[in-house]
């Protein structure tokens, strides 16, 4: 059998190496494994060349429809990605290195992560963040755990307008910890503030909010953050980072912890991953952060350099007393986020957010103007909004799919009572013509 | 090197966005808007490219340097796998949740299902979920499934047992899931001390977490007995699959008594480590834990088509936004497909050969706390060098000057001045010999001229960094005021 190209030792070298070791065969190196523990089966296909593999992958990828026009978001967004992102993040010096345990030969990764931490702080208006977490959902769960640690309390209030998948992840993480999670209803496209204020008490560790929320509604949570603060509870705001080109930051709202998913910042849809999660905090909470943190320092000769810092929080040092079990993170996806933001620049991000807002507003006007269609919530939106249709949203969505249009996310699955509601997403990539086609098709599906 | 913020000039930008084809909408209420734009750097595209290209040159990486970081399996990452990823870049993850939406994503669902099946065959587990986003999250899923299983048996147990050689993630995971940790010491042979283990076990133990082979690079020949003892107390046994590279095709953990295991795709299955991630930590289970797997699960109908199965009532729930680090799953599938059965067996054989070769060549120069044949990695101690005042860290820094990324140092915690070398199967004998020569040189310098080691590294953009200062004068982000002000957050 022809060997793979990834194992370089020649037969002569193998013989030489075995002689140095003092064994006569490779099999002898495995002699420590008792016969009864040996694999009884290993039924895998024969290997193949990269060319055959790629041909097979192309056939498989061909079974994904790639010509659909997407008006769908719900946590994963179809945004433009400048070519430099792929080119720079694809550099093997970044991609094939690992956690920068040895700072002198890892300054590239370390400085990039320090810059990443800085742009996340500037974007969110928070003081400090770590070098990334897995994704937005797990970042929210880590934020909830952090709030429980900081306050020593056992109750969390969650706005039902927070992404349902994120809420499920929080539930999973907290399931074994005797924590009470109270959901605040959000039937009109927005969490019920009265219920929030009535439920918030001195036992509450944190309130969890999202902006824009899952229905697309944009809010200012300053009042809730202030109310939480009075009760000694922390405010966690989950955000869609691209919207921060325009929207009020969690820092400006008085949030203690800000989290989000970085997919919209230079990471492709890629069927949901990889992206990255971020968790940014007020400075007093920095020692409670999970994960790697990069800090600035100087070398022996006084030159600026970067290292992993505050490692006494982490599992490799503290074991069961660590702030989290996280080890690897999503550095390369975070690097993509940094390159994306650096390429757009200060004004570019504003312009990009503005494009999203303008196009979504145009679509909202057209779609809400269709007979029988209304908006779930008349409040402001960013690039997503929720329509109430005269019939089941799932069936409208199904009919539009047959025309190659993904019209949005029908909400009934996650929000009983909202079966007629459809959340539509319009990013900068959707053209006016595509928006108009959607509106015409929807009108036809509803009324002809 | 200057920070990207220090290269910024107001009014510059690196990319031009498409012109809007709709009229500007009415402004949002001011109360909903940020006071001023985020302080992002302003650079031309070329300046961005130079900045990151030059930053990248300040890294050692597998593609540029031998990187024998023990426990991390820094093998070569096949370029063809990167090509495969591009084919799937544009697929939206919510499509399967739409009516009949699965039919639009049969390719992407197929990737996940096929990889899960292959991992099950490789490890002997009944089924896998590819959802965990990293090894540590796979561990968490595994321990949560064990907790859920005990609850289904009407039991609430208190403890998780780990050997003292375990990865820090094992006890941290147990604590995260609400368990107290019991630690068992390592015997003089390098295995978990069986007598102490027997005494430690009781009917309040929910799980025993073992790394196979262990973090000393040793295969514990009593592993089946350990599983049997644990099962005898009604506990389940977790396999940390970080070291699966050593036993591909040789041992299938599912056959020898392990109930749950995770694998690290970025270690064993050749996906890039990305400067710290994204990794991927699929979790596999034995038959009795199937209902507890994370949701959603991807299943196959008899006609061959894939779909999202309704979550079982017993499922521990969702761990990730969607289905896992999908791009990493594609790469791992590409890797396994190219290597195939014989190629994967060759991986473990050559990885073990390389590690034993390095161990044999260096054991005259460094102390070997557990002097038996190793598997895929070997753990030395710089205790001998310490007598001259030379630490493992000094040797590590010297290696940097000679163009090698250092091995893992100071882990496992139970070995004094540990130097943990994992060459992987993809390194040639020539590379290993060059590395060995420098390791010997360092051992000689420790005797003759330790100062040379203390001064290393001298050839990097920075010399040794002041970690105490970094931890005391915390500066983890530039302040919002860019020019002229004190930078950083000092608390």
In short:
With about 450 residues, chain A is of the alpha/beta class. Chain A contains 15 helices and 15 strands. Helix content of chain A is about 40%, strand content about 15%.
User: What spatial order of strands do you see in the largest sheet of chain A?
Assistant: 2-8-7-6-5-3-4
Shape type of chain B:
globular
Strand segment tally of chain A: 15
For this structure, the quaternary state is heterodimer
Level of helix content of chain A?
25-40%
CATH superfamily name of the largest domain in chain A?
A: Type I PLP-dependent aspartate aminotransferase-like (Major domain)
Give average pLDDT of chain A, whole number: 97
- H/E element sequence of chain B: HHHEHEHEHEHEEHEEEHEHHEEHHH
Output the helix-strand order of chain A: HHHEHHHEHEHEHEHEHEEEEHHEEHEEEH
| Low-confidence regions of chain A | none
Tell me the name of the CATH homologous superfamily of the largest domain in chain B: Type I PLP-dependent aspartate aminotransferase-like (Major domain)
Spatial ordering of strands, largest sheet of chain B: 1-7-6-5-4-2-3
Count of runs of 4 or more consecutive helical residues of chain B: 14
User: Biggest β-sheet of chain B: count, sense, barrel?
Assistant: 7 strands, mixed
Labels describing this entry:
heterodimer; A: 448 residues; alpha/beta; Aspartate Aminotransferase, domain 1; Aspartate Aminotransferase, domain 2; 7-stranded mixed sheet; 4-stranded antiparallel sheet; 14% strand; B: 491 residues; 3-stranded antiparallel sheet; 14 helices; disordered C terminus
Can you walk me through this structure?
The complex is a heterodimer of chains A (448) and B (491). Chain A is 38% helix and 14% strand. With 448 residues, chain A is an alpha/beta fold. Chain A has two domains: 69-78 and 348-447, Aspartate Aminotransferase, domain 1, CATH 3.90.1150.10; 83-340, 3-Layer(aba) Sandwich (Aspartate Aminotransferase, domain 2). The longest helix of chain A has 38 residues, at 331-368. The radius of gyration of chain A is 25 Å and the shape is globular. The N and C termini of chain A lie far apart (64 Å). The model of chain A has no long low-confidence stretch (mean pLDDT 97). Chain B has two domains: 82-337, 3-Layer(aba) Sandwich (Aspartate Aminotransferase, domain 2); 342-469, Alpha-Beta Complex (Aspartate Aminotransferase, domain 1). In chain B, the strands form three sheets. A seven-stranded mixed beta sheet of chain B has the order 1-7-6-5-4-2-3, sandwiched between helices. Mean pLDDT of chain B is 95; it is low at 480-491. The chains are: A alpha/beta (448), B alpha/beta (491). At the A-B interface, α1, α3, α4, α5 and α6 of A face α1, α2, α3, α4 and α5 of B.
